[in-house]
Amino acid sequence: MNATLSRWSLLFTLLLLPLAGCALREAAPDARHAVLLVSIDAFRADYVERGLTPHLAALARDGATAAYMLPSFPSLTFPNHYTLVTGRVPDRNGIVNNTMWDPALGKFSLGNRDATSDGRWWAQAEPIWVTAQKHGLRTATMFWPGTEAEIHGARPDHWIPFDDSLTARQRVDKLLAWIDLPGPRPLFDTLYFDDVDHAGHEFGPDSKQVDEALRRVDDALGYLVEQLRRRGLYDATNLVIVSDHGMADVPRGNIVFADEETDLDALDAISYGVMATFNAKQGVDGSRAVARLLGPHAHMRCYRKEALPARLDYGKNPRVPAYLCLAETGWSITSHEVLAKRTMPMSRGEHGYDNLDPAMRALFVARGPDIGRGVRIAPFPNVDVYPLLAHLLGLRPLPNDGNLGDVKGVLRAPGTSASSAGQFP
Asked: Rounded CA gap, 158 and 183, in Å?
């Protein structure tokens, strides 16, 4: 009888083992580490060589970095921020420019809160915080393009409308306040700093003001690390620090006036800047204006959108206007009418240029329990950040343009220590 019971007991145990394994697999998400995605807008990759960002340098030494990360085209803020969290290039994520026009939705621009908070603009792709929400993970987004909108029926658990008056440290404090709330900790967080971008636009990338902005943001990174340490969260958090693009110097007077190059009465100008875009006006014979626009110009080159170089991976989205002009690096495009309405001088620094231009190269640094230490990988396109984030969060990525294989070298090898020995200055 005892032997029979023993056999039944053994059989019952063997039958339960697979179920126990399933239970362990189901419980695994509770043990995953948080991911904090930090953007330093317009932090050009070579800024690290200025020696002004010791906290960032310490994170790189204790984690992983690349010589640079390649932005997607166009190398603009909203398109690339959305690429980073969707893995889709702008032509497929729907945010094709900082200023756009859609037949059904009208005009989109950075300062138009009605547009930026309308989820229909963002619906061509799903950002990772929405995917995380759908899988039961809590999220907190301290600014990121798209976080003010309900996208595919979801919003971050914690978010606020963009407010550029908040200092870098105040933004850290706000995020930490959300993390400190009772209940489950947010497992996907974002943090956005724009000091470096503002200084670069107003004074140029080689200015003392950019150097001061680099110091301010680095101070905020050091403060973030200190506060995470105090909470016992630093070694349980994967920090992924990126920028959206770099910055190029634009000397005063380096302006191409579109109204000197073609007849703007026959065209609708959608956007100006490094990239100027146009549609033909309805009911107007614009053939001569288009021919002039597409002809040769000093300091800019113009294309029909279907004739753009294939490597740009751009021009198929209906939101991309019919004609696109790209300025030579160090130049920008406007019209006399638009310039006359400006209340501030033209920018001394710009981005939006060809994404292969070295001045557009972006930053990548990662550090955390799931990241290798002292790792340096080859440059890679920013679409690869999304599958990396999904991997760190234990989520199945949605279809995307990235490749985890390009960045898997940053991941900590199984069996190696996840503890930190690095000391911050």
From this structure: 13
Is 419 inside a domain boundary?
no
pTM summary value = 0.91
CA distances, 263 to each of 79, 270, 321, 338 (Å): 29, 15, 17, 15
Looking at the structure, tell me whether residues 205 and 326 fall in a common domain. no
pLDDT tens digits along 213-264: 999 999 999 999 999 999 999 999 999 999 999 999 999 999 999 999 999 9
Crossing angle for the helix pair 195-203 and 208-230, to the nearest 10 degrees = 180
Gap between the terminal Cα atoms of the chain:
70
Q: Check if the beta carbon of residue 98 is closer than 8 Å to that of residue 110.
A: yes
Radius of gyration for the alpha carbons in the chain, expressed in angstroms and rounded: 24
Task: Say whether both 166 and 62 belong to one domain.
Answer: yes
| pLDDT greater than 60 at residue 10 | no
DSSP string computed for 326-387? EEPTT-EEE-HHHHHH-SSPPPSEE--S-TTSGGG-B-EEEESTTB-SSEEE--EEGGGHHH
pLDDT score recorded for residue 417: 52
**Count of domains for the chain:** 2
Q: Which of 347, 342, 199 is nearest to 273 (CA)?
A: 347
User: Which ranges constitute the DSSP H helices of 262-342?
Assistant: 287-294, 336-341
The mean per-residue pLDDT over the stretch 281-300 comes to: 95
Tell me how far apart the 2 most distant CA atoms of the chain are, in Å.
Answer: 101
| C-alpha closest to that of 132 among 120, 124, 143, 141 | 141
Per residue in 143-186, pLDDT (tens digit) is: 999 999 999 999 999 999 999 999 999 999 999 999 999 999 99
**8-state DSSP, 265:** G
Q: Are residues 200 and 268 in the same domain?
A: no
Task: Note the pLDDT of residue 416.
Answer: 61
- Boundary residue ending a domain (321, 346, 371): 346
Structural domain ending residue among the three candidates 301, 324, 346: 346
- Write out the residue range of the structural domain in which residue 276 sits: 255-346
Q: Which residues are catalytic?
A: 77
Helix (H) or strand (E) holding 9: helix 2-27
Residue 93 to residue 285: CA distance in whole angstroms: 33
Instruction: Write out pLDDT tens, residues 40-72.
Output: 999 999 999 999 999 999 999 999 999 999 999
pLDDT score, position 26 = 33
- Left, alpha or beta for 154 (phi > 0: left; psi -120 to 50: alpha)? beta
CA 7 and chain centroid, separation: 59
Region 278-305: what's the mean pLDDT?
Answer: 96
Quick check: helix, strand or coil at residue 259?
helix
